[in-house]
Amino acid sequence: MNQETNEPYDSTQTLDNEQKPQEKSTEKKVKKDEAKLEDAIEASARKILNRREVILWRGTPSHTSMLKYHALSFLMIVAFVYLGITFSVFFFALLIAPIVLSTLKILSIKTNIYEITSKRLRIKKGIFSRVTHEIELYDIKNTTLEEKRGNKGFITFYTTNEKFPKIRFPRVKNPSDIHNKVRDIYEEIKLERNKITHSKTK
Predict the structure, then answer these.
(1) Does pLDDT of 162 surpass 80?
(2) Exposure string (b/e) for 88-117, b if CB count within 10 Å is 16 or more?
(3) 70 contacts 78 by C-beta, under 8 angstroms
(4) Is 169 exposed, middle or buried (CB count within 10 Å of its CB: 0-12, 13-18, 19+)?
(5) Which residues pair with 134 in a beta bridge?
(6) How far apart are CA 106 and CA 108, in angstroms?
């Protein structure tokens, strides 16, 4: 006589078999969405880092930084005039020295140009020949702001660049606004570069 054995029905096994395709499908969808998100982040970062460079600020040192030279030139003129009247007209010829000194200092203010662009700091110097120094904004590691009376001040940028470890903007107008502009664009570049690096290491 054949004896039939009724094995219990395992419903959990059936559910597992049904859930596995769904889990795989969900996992693929999540990975696909993550890949799209990473591509979007990287595209956005590349757009910022490779965007057209624009000048955010341009200025020259304040004329108040030259007051001591103008005062010295004035004293020299008074002294030479007095000596010329008292002793010899030869001293009148020396009046050319303070005049040249003041003129060169005025020209140095006009020709020393400081620029902040969307990518770098730029300093242009020179009266008869032009020399340009550039520092990438992402090379900046620290800044100091020293404000003076008359809404003028000094901004010092400390960088990782071995050739220019310190860049100083002397006696510029509205130093706080300039400092904030550099800080904001630097943080933006830093954030986007970190996004690119983070997305590549995943």
Answers:
(1) yes
(2) eeebeeebeebeeebeebeebeeebbbbbb
(3) no
(4) buried
(5) 122
(6) 5
Helix 67-86 vs helix 96-111: angle between axes, to the nearest 10 degrees? 170
What's the CA gap between 191 and 135, in Å, rounded? 19
Q: What is residue 51's predicted lDDT score, i.e. its pLDDT?
A: 63
What single letter denotes the amino acid at residue 82?
Y
DSSP 51: S
Q: What is the pLDDT of residue 163?
A: 85
Delineate the domains of the chain, giving CATH numbers in brackets: 55-201 (2.30.29.30)
Indicate the burial class of 59 (C-beta count within 10 angstroms; 0-12, 13-18, 19 or more): middle
Cα end-to-end distance, the chain, whole Å: 66
Neighbours of 189 (CB within 10 A): 19
CA distances from 168 to 61, 115, 133 (A): 11, 12, 12
Structure tokens at 156: 């010092």
- Report which DSSP code applies to 110: H
> Token pair 């982040």 is at which residue?
41
Phi, psi of 159 (to 5 degrees): -125, 170
Q: What is the pLDDT of residue 116?
A: 87
Name the residue type at position 75. Answer: L
- Is residue 61 within 8 Å of 171, Cβ to Cβ? yes
